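Possible regression after last week's pipeline update?

I re-ran a chain I had predicted before the update to compare outputs. Posting the input and the new output here so someone can diff against the archived version. Not blocking, just want to make sure nothing changed silently.
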Amino acid sequence: MISNNHYKVLGVNANEDTETIKIAFKRLASKYHPDKNHNNSEYTELFYKIKNAYEEIMEYKNNG
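New output (post-update):
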């Protein structure tokens, strides 16, 4: 089972469909991407949390 924290990172509910989760991921990834936020280690760390949460959720939903 996926941690609810992963869903919180993306700002979605656990019962959302994959398309909604993908849209949330793209919005956040674009906002916090390291290429857009040079020299901001806080945003870089947040970007990787977002990426990890998305990957874990999608793996769970696709294999699940």
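Follow-up from reviewer: compared with the archived run. The domain at 4-63 is CATH 1.10.287.110 (Helix Hairpins). Marking as no regression found.
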